[in-house]
Amino acid sequence: MLKNKYIIENTKTLIYALIIAVIIRSLIIQPFYIPSSSMEPNLLVGDRLFVTKYSYGYSKHSFPFSPPIFKGRILSKKPKRGDVVVFKTPADNRTDYIKRLIGLPGDQIQFIDSNLYINNNEVLKSRISKNDKIYCGNKTIKVFTFEELLPNKKKHNTVYLKDFSYQNSDIFIVPEKHYFFLGDNRDCSKDSRFLSSVGYVHKDNLVGKAQFIFFSSDKSKGNIFSFWKWNKSVRFDRFFKKIK
User: Fold this and answer.
1) Which of 53, 60, 88, 99 is catalytic?
2) CATH level 3 topology of 31-213
3) What does the domain layout of the chain look like in residue ranges?
4) pTM of this structure
5) Is 38 annotated in the active site?
6) Tens-digit pLDDT profile for the chain (244 aa)?
7) What is the DSSP string of the chain?
């Protein structure tokens, strides 16, 4: 009898803990891992960050496995231009992407001579470095680093290949209730410029706003379990770094 009671109580405790974890993950905050270099130099492969789920309200994508429990968004809040956002890709409504919000509903987005234009106005950028190296997949590329100033005065760093490979584009007109996203690593990012794979993102696909990095490690310099290599593999300077 005592053994059965012990098993029942422990099972109940595990169930309660699971329910609380799901509620926190769905409604408050969720950890994410950065697997690609598309947001360099601001987010690195191996960064682990917290995303607030309440920032833009809730949709079915706020919950694990995106259950169709209701339509649209509840407690909806509009994201701001320049926010770093996690969203479900329109292609499959399942894969999580993280990019920077550039275009709002109704905006016209275009690249002309490698310069970004929003509503026919050039987004000002000032070069802060001309000899940086960052990753693009498994390759290292040489880039110019710029500080970009968006129309709402939000600043962030972006990088472009030195030969400015993405020079000109068609005009992207952001549909109603949709958003346009770019990676900060402009020549190494699959984002809203690629309409067949990402394209315009519906507001219901927004998952949350990236807030800060809580842990970061470089697997190429050592396994996280190899504590004697932490001085090389763990990026202590990125702990609790706010995402801008």
Assistant:
1) 99
2) Umud Fragment, subunit A (2.10.109)
3) 31-213
4) 0.92
5) yes
6) 556 676 777 788 888 888 888 888 888 999 999 999 999 999 999 999 999 999 999 999 999 989 999 999 999 999 999 999 999 999 999 999 999 999 999 999 999 998 999 999 999 999 999 888 898 988 899 999 999 999 999 999 999 998 877 888 999 999 999 999 999 999 999 999 999 889 999 999 999 999 999 999 998 787 777 777 778 889 999 999 999 9
7) -HHHHHHHHHHHHHHHHHHHHHHHHHHTEEEEE--SSTTTTTS-TTEEEEEESSBTBB-GGGSTT---SSSS-BS-----TT-EEEEE-TTTS--EEEEEEEE-TT-EEEEETTEEEETTEEPEEEEEEEEEEEEETTEEEEEEEEEEE-TTS-EEEEEEETT-S----PPEEPPTTEEEEE-SBTTS--STT-TTTT-SEEGGGEEEEEEEEEEEB-GGG--TT-GGGHHHHB-GGGTTEEP-
Task: Check 38, 59, 62, 189 and give the catalytic one.
Answer: 38
